[in-house]
Specification:
Strands 2-1-3-4-5 form a five-stranded parallel sheet, with helices on both faces. The protein has a five-stranded mixed β-barrel with strand order 15-16-17-19-18. Among the domains are: 112 residues, Response regulator (Rossmann fold), CATH 3.40.50; 55 residues, OB fold (Dihydrolipoamide Acetyltransferase, E2P) (Beta Barrel), CATH 2.40.50. The chain is of the alpha/beta class. The longest helix is centred in the C-terminal third of the chain and has 24 residues. Strand 15 and strand 16 form a beta hairpin. Helix 1 crosses helix 5 and helix 12 packs parallel to helix 13. The chain has 13 helices and 19 strands. The termini are far apart.
Length: 434
């Protein structure tokens, strides 16, 4: 019988909370379980096993992770529940104390999560493990047309508010050859865009080669039309990186560069190693070197001691930089970080007000960015999953979402679209005949 033949296999779902790195790691766990013979389905379906990949970057994320654990076990008390992720490091005792967990896989052991799940199933009566699928049987791609590619893990910046260096450890990079091999498999699976991700991607290094070398090598792989960088720290935006983007059109002209605050005193307290002026200067240089580049950012408001004037400085810098999108977060004290015990904690209601103001500014900036595209022709990687029949939508290389009517099945293809107007979440347009 063919290894891919249908039979009663344990059904497993993976529920992911948090960042793109977690999303990538969950996909790797799911793929390995599929190859080992299990049926991988949505976590919302009836399951024999649920793997929950937790997040702890904020106290809200940690609380949502614990809620997900309790909720999944209530839905199906007979289901085996496996928990991994940053929550096992930052909130390990709280997670373990829930009592609903059948297996806890430490974050630093996540690469072995699939193996541990199989061992767990083997110890329970009633679960007959099927034979592994043939090597040619890959997990069918899910809803993503853009493939995540993790190249690096860990961080050593130790920003005073951030728990990630404690949950993820020191920086470490995958080998150049291993990354390229996976990228070729991504291209062979039909993905046109690869999103290079990691905890601190700018720290990538392998045998004298850095991130610019890796991005240029990825762009040379047949079948890959776009290489997108998920995020980059301001201090890692080097001349070599900018030159790589200027020379290689397959590198998406979209850079997500966290600012966090527009006030120098707050930046120092955060242990961010640049000034607001240096950041503004970097943005100006990027726009000169890469015409049309879209720059998005993270902003953290309500940091301990942040005054109204300091918050206004952040508003002013955000407007001056003309970001195309803002990701705004209220400060969340995390036990074990220096900022958690700093004096002059900002009241929750004041943090919420500042978040609302920045979100409103972000909406204004995003609309201005979309309006600048009206009348232009852009290439859109069609996703299609979000749209009604007769419509497609997707992203430009500058991360503008464009929705347009079409009668063609375009999912996963790049279409040329003339932008005709703006929408709440981006722009609308009409397909340009080939």
């Amino acid at each position: 019988m063919n290894d891919c033949a249908t039979q009663r296999r344990p059904r497993v779902g993976v529920l992911t909370l948090g960042c793109k790195v977690n999303q990538y790691e969950s996909a790797r766990i799911a793929d390995e379980l599929w190859r080992q013979g299990l049926d991988v389905v949505s976590w919302q379906e009836p399951l024999d096993v649920c793997v929950i990949n937790t997040c702890s970057v904020t106290h809200v994320a940690a609380a949502k992770s614990r809620q997900a654990i309790r909720r999944m076990k209530r839905r199906n008390p007979q289901m085996l529940l496996v928990v991994t992720g940053c929550g096992t490091a930052a909130d390990g005792s709280a997670v373990a104390g829930l009592g609903e967990i059948d297996l806890l896989v430490a974050n630093h052991e996540k690469d072995a999560a699939a193996e541990r799940v199989l061992e767990l199933l083997g110890r329970h009566d009633g679960y007959a493990l099927p034979a592994p699928r043939a090597a040619s049987c890959a997990l069918p791609p899910g809803g993503r047309t853009r493939a995540l590619l993790k190249v690096q893990d860990g961080c050593s910046h130790f920003c005073s508010y951030c728990i990630i260096p404690y949950t993820r450890g020191r920086p470490r990079s995958r080998s150049f050859a291993e990354v390229l091999e996976e990228a070729r498999a991504i291209a062979a699976a039909g993905h046109r865009e690869v999103v290079v991700t990691g905890i601190c991607v700018g720290a990538y290094a392998d045998q004298g080669r850095g991130l610019p070398d890796l991005l240029l090598a990825l762009a040379q792989i047949a079948g890959i039309e776009r290489v997108r960088l998920s995020s980059i720290e301001p201090t890692d935006v080097t001349d070599r990186l900018v030159d790589a983007f200027a020379r290689q059109p397959k590198l998406c002209r979209h850079l997500h560069i966290p600012l966090q605050s527009g006030d120098d005193a707050v930046l120092r307290a955060m242990n961010r190693t640049y000034t607001a002026g240096q950041y503004v200067g970097m943005v100006a240089e990027l726009r000169a070197a890469l015409p049309g580049v879209a720059i998005t950012t993270d902003l953290l408001v309500g940091f301990p001691g942040e005054t109204e004037d300091q918050f206004r400085s952040t508003m002013a810098v955000a407007e001056r930089c003309a970001f195309s999108r803002l990701h705004v977060f209220p400060f969340s004290p995390r036990d074990g970080t220096p900022a958690a015990s700093m004096p002059a904690q900002v009241p929750a209601e004041e943090k919420d007000r500042r978040v609302r103001e920045l979100v409103a500014l972000g909406g204004h900036l995003a609309r201005r960015f979309a309006e600048a595209h009206v009348g232009r022709e852009v290439d859109v990687l069609a996703e299609g999953a979000r749209t009604e029949p007769g419509w497609a939508d997707g992203l430009t290389d500058t991360y503008l979402r464009v929705r347009f009517p079409t009668q063609r099945p375009l999912r996963g293809q790049i279409a040329t679209v003339r932008v005709t107007g703006v929408a709440d979440d981006g722009a609308v347009g009409e397909e340009v005949p080939a």
